[in-house]
Amino acid sequence: MTSAFAKANVIRSIIVDDEPLARDLLKRLLEKEPDVSLLAACSNAREAVEAVRALKPELVFLDIEMPGEDGLSLAERLSTLPKPPQIVFVTAYNRFAIDAFELNAVDYLVKPVSKERCRDAVSRARDVIRKDSIVELASRLVEVVRNVDRATEQPPEEQHLVLSKNDVLRSVPLSQVQWIEAANQYVSIHTTDGSYVMSESLGQFSARISDARFLRVHRSALVNARYVAEVSRNANGTHTLMLADGTELTLARSRASLLPALLKFSAERNA
To answer: Is the bond leading into 112 cis (omega within 30 degrees of zero)?
Structure first.
């Protein structure tokens, strides 16, 4: 009999590929992985969206080149879900690799997929999914404590992040976060006492932050404006932000409208 613990550790997965032979090969490879449960095999983006919404998989093996909506566009759509699945892209071409990892893919498989590469991809996904589960549980526990505080009419605390380093979890006040950068399928969170890595996209992380002082200065960086010590204009129309710890970040030309807010929040800290 399968234990409840074993069931809880099964990775719920779906395949999305318009080629029947490619779907069948991947199905046979995944059947050899004891902790992978294949919930569906879809032939296009429409079927995939319906399956993700109904079955809530944790992992999607996604072909990039498909008729209609391609895999890159579908992955971007799935990333906006409240709890998006991890993505392993599958394609016949290497040229999509950079785009795939910019969309925070766990791995990138080139057809025909070998048993060894499939196993590597599942292993990487397993590590990401299980780490996310630990952090999510810790976050829920922190929220329970906050709800108890509210019930006893204690003053509300500032927002905290549950971060992990070397398998040790910490609750870090948001005010100690200086800036966050995108790094493939992760974000690097730079605080006043060190850096942490979290497996989610910068967009997902930004959506969880309620502090208006955190501003997206370009596609790969979110900055806490309170730590901006100096702003200088560059000849090419961009601006350079100097943080209190000496870090330099670029404010993209397309985001120049953020300058008043950056200077306002920076002035509050330095007042």
So the answer is: yes
Pairing of strands 86-91, 59-63: parallel
Give the residue from 181, 194, 197, 205 showing the smallest Cα distance to 127: 197
Question: Is a pLDDT exceeding 60 seen at residue 149?
Answer: no
| Phi-psi region at 255: left, alpha or beta (left = phi > 0; alpha = psi -120 to 50) | alpha
Interval 53-65: pLDDT, tens: 999 999 999 998 8
Q: Which two tokens stand for residue 236?
A: 């090419």
- For residues 170 and 135, what is the distance between their CA atoms, to the nearest angstrom? 10
Cross-sheet strand order for the sheet of 239-243: 228-233, 239-243, 248-251
Neighbouring C-beta atoms of residue 257, cutoff 10 Å: 7
Looking at the DSSP assignment, which residues form a beta bridge with residue 205?
Answer: none
Question: ∠126-127-131 over CA atoms, to 5°?
Answer: 115
Dihedral angle sign, alpha carbons of residues 174, 177, 179, 180: negative
Question: Closest Cα to residue 16, out of 36, 45, 38?
Answer: 45
In the chain, what are the domain boundaries?
4-132, 158-270
Please report, for the chain, how many H helices and E strands are present, in that order. Answer: 8, 15
- pLDDT for the residue 101: 54
Fold of domain 4-132: Rossmann fold (3.40.50)
170-to-59, 127, 164, 196, 235 alpha-carbon distances in Å? 27, 19, 6, 10, 42
Taking the C-alpha atoms of residue 245 and residue 220, their distance in angstroms, rounded to an integer, is: 19
Which fold is adopted by the domain 158-270? Answer: OB fold (Dihydrolipoamide Acetyltransferase, E2P) (2.40.50)
